Amino acid sequence: MLRVDRTLALALTRWQHPAGQRRWLAVAVIAILIAGATLLVWHTGGIRYAFSHIMYLPILLGAALFGAVGGIAAGLAGGLALGPGMPIDTATGEMQEPVNWVYRAVFFMVVGGVVGMLGQAVGRLLGEDPVSGAPSQQPLRQELGRSLETSVPGQATPRFSVLVAIFDNYSELVNTFGPEVGVRLIRGVVERLRFACAEDAGVYHLHGERFAVVVERERLDEVRAAVRARAMEPLVADGVPLYVNLTFGRADHPEHGSSAEELIQRATIAADLASRRGERERVYDVGSDQNSRENLILLSGFRGALNDGELSLYHQPKWHLGSEQVVGTEVLLRWQHREHGLLTPARFIPQLENSHLIHELTPWVVSAALRDLGELQRDGYNWHVALNLSARNLNDEGLIEDLGRALAEAGTSPEQLEVEVTESAVLADPEQARRVLGRLRDWGVGVAIDDFGAGQTSLGYLSRLPATSLKIDRALVQQLAGASSDCRIVESVAGLGRRLGMEVVAEGVEDRTTLAMARGAGCDIVQGYGICPPQPLETIRQTFAPERPANIHRRCTEGSPRLV
Ligand code: C2E
Ligand code: MG
Ligand code: MG
After folding, report:
1. 26 and 63 share a domain?
2. What residue numbers bound the domain in which 30 lies?
3. Nearest atom, ligand 1, residue 389 CA
4. Residue owning the nearest CA to atom 12 of ligand 1
């Protein structure tokens, strides 16, 4: 039943918007029909006789295949074919008045245009995408709804999968070859997916460069193999074979969702994540889902949490290897959630960054960090305090202004404050990052590049950043005790940082071996559970008194990271 419905729906739209070679074939067929209709009118005695109505055939075909533009073009061609060269009667040779054939040509064009527009409107009503002509979101939801309806008690649960495909290099190709090629590529991808899936699966155009395929579970492996083999072959545009990179995300029913909405959303989440990570395909997993309902509920409680004092800053000391003492702390946000307990930033910061709430959080962090810094200074700690900024904060010039004002009001020396921005945040908009960080440096605020070595690195850019410190990513540092190649990488990064005049910090030092290697690699400062995990400020102050530098070697013991 499901397949019959789908076949009917597709049949209505399948022949619309032909792509590639089929487009030229369609144009040739229309031209042949126009020529045939003209010959027929001539041989049957001229325009006086009823055969001129045969010209509506190519006009309607042009409208059906190419929409209003196709209908008008076919109408004009048909009108001219039956125009000045066509006699009223071939026997007498009597020719038409220009007004007659002009009137007829205009009428043909109007008919072609109107039929084309009506066809497009009907297509949209049927849920067809105007660019590709493939069924889009509405028919997809209907099909999923029908499949889900069969989940009645007593019957086996239908098992099927939704695959969402992202045409990854679409923007790149459009920027290089122009929007007209883009439209042809989108249609080409739909064609390919349909061809690869044959009658085994429904193909939908979600929007833009996103497509969906619904496939019954027992055919999944077959369809995946066919799509891999066929859908990613180069598409030829103007004789140039262009590579199509498709990334797939998959959500299975019933494992990953019980409604059409959930399945589409989760397959999209998986595809987005796969695309960001450069993977070919990814199956949805709840752990990496930052958009679920649960997250929305969490975010909706965030403002309340901010006002009700559920947020706090933990501090993690930074240990200077030369002077053997703490020289500062990094503040790390914690949320004491009523239901979920103590939440670390990984659970909520990425979600906040996708909403405007990040702009409400950061001023709070700035003022709390400055308050803690003031308190430390009053009690004789000559430490600096570092806070984390996200990529979005770098675009918020107002925040930077507020930070300057808050610093002035707090009366703390700007040199005692440091901001940490990740390498990826800097690379999101390097020019903007350079401008904002430059202003902070002008005031005397320290700038650290966080998680260096975790992602893409632009060394050229690094040298132009006004940074004072380079924090080597935990993942690199933690390999120090193991692989010798990583040891050389950390050494090289530390050397690079020093040559650029930066202080080099090794993050995530958990044991004595790593500590010794970080020292050997030339790092200036270490930070990690082995020295001290993030703690409330009060606990840190009890452990590290200003007049009594603690002995790091007592704290950092092989294999037992959380010692303090
Ligand atoms: P980060 O700035 O790189 O902070 C270091 C993270 O590594 C912290 O995680 C810290 O608890 C953890 N860590 C420190 N030493 C060790 C170690 O020896 N072993 C291991 N396994 N982990 C260690 P946390 O507190 O969960 O924070 C995660 C990230 O969240 C931070 O990474 C930072 O990018 C972000 N973040 C934290 N607070 C804020 C904030 O107030 N605003 C913004 N925008 N981001 C924040
Ligand atoms: Mg940090
Ligand atoms: Mg870090």
Report:
1. yes
2. 2-126
3. 44
4. 508
